[in-house]
Amino acid sequence: MPDISSTLKIHRDRCADHLSHPVLATSLEAALQGAIRLIGAFQTDVDITVKGTSNFVSSADLAAENAIVSTIREQFPEHAIISEESHSDRADAEHLWVIDPLDGTSNFLHGIPHFAVSIGYYERGAGKIGVVCNPITADWYVAIEKQGAWHNGQPMLVSRAERLNQAMISCGFHYDRGKMMEATLATLADLFRADIHGIRRFGAAALDIANVACGQYEAFFEYRLSPWDYAAGAILLNEAGGRITDCSGVHLPLGASSGVCATNGSLHPAMLEQLASHLQHFQSGDC
Predict the structure, then answer these.
(1) Non-local CB neighbours of 260 within 8 Å, separated by 6+ positions
(2) What is the pLDDT of residues 20-54, one digit of tens each?
(3) Model pTM score
(4) Structural domains of the chain ordered from first start
(5) Strands (DSSP E) along 11-162, which ranges?
(6) Which residues, in sequence order, are bridge partners of residue 132?
(7) At 141, is the secondary structure helix, strand, or coil?
(8) Cα 256 versus chain centre, distance
C-alpha cells in the first residue's frame, strides 16, 4: 500500500486549511503517526492478546498508541491522556486527550479495511477537537468547537430526516453475549417494526458516529462503549448539528463506560424511546 500514506497527508492538510486551534497540528500529526503504524501492520501477522470474549489487543494497537502518545507528549507533556490500552489519567483534568489507537480491532485482525484512529481533545470537560481517521481509505473526519466538522476538507452536516421510517440506523454489539446482546437484538427488531430503511453494523463506533455526522446514517446506538470509542465522534457530531447522549438521554461521561445514542438531532427523542424499553433488561442484573 505504498500510496496510502501520501494520500493520508493530502487529506489531512485539506482539513487543516479550514480550521485553527493551538493543538490542531498536534492532533492531526498524532493521528497520522498512529495511522501510519496501522497501515504498516495491516494484513500482516501481528501478536494478539485476548482481553475477553471477542475482545483483543494486538501489537498494532500498542504501536499506534505509542506513536500517538509520543507525538502528544512531545508538544504537551503536562496534558492528561486516557487511552484504551495503557493510559488512564484523570478524566477531570484541565487538558485531556482521549485516544483509541485502533477502533475496530476485530476488523483489522480479519483484514477488513474498516477501522480508525480516534483522538478527542477536551478542556475542563468540554470537547474542543475531534479527529477520526480511517488509515486505509484515507478518510479524515475533523471538528473543532464552533468551527464546524469536515470530511477530507468538505463540510459535514447531519441528515434532515424527521421520522424513523426515513432512517438508516447503525448499531454496535458490546462484547457481552448475554442480556445486553439480547436487548440489542430486541431493539433492532423494534426498529424494523418502525419501518426504518435498514440496519448497518460495521464494527467501529468512531466511524459509525462520524457517518451519522456526515448524514449517511440517521442514528447509531450501542448499549455499552468506553470513552475512547465516542470522545472524538461526539465532537464531530455536535459540530455537524447532531446530538449524542447516553441511552437514557444523559450527557456522556469521559471517566466511565456508557451506552451511546447518536442521532441527527431530529430523531433523538424517537431513538431514546426505542432504547428505553430495553435498558431495564440488562441494567437490572448481570449482563
Answers:
(1) 205, 209, 220, 221, 222, 225, 229, 230, 244, 245, 246, 247, 252
(2) 899 999 999 999 999 999 999 898 877 666 555 55
(3) 0.92
(4) 4-155 (3.30.540.10), 164-283 (3.40.190.80)
(5) 48-52, 55-58, 80-83, 95-103, 116-123, 126-134, 139-144, 148-151, 154-155
(6) 118, 141
(7) strand
(8) 15
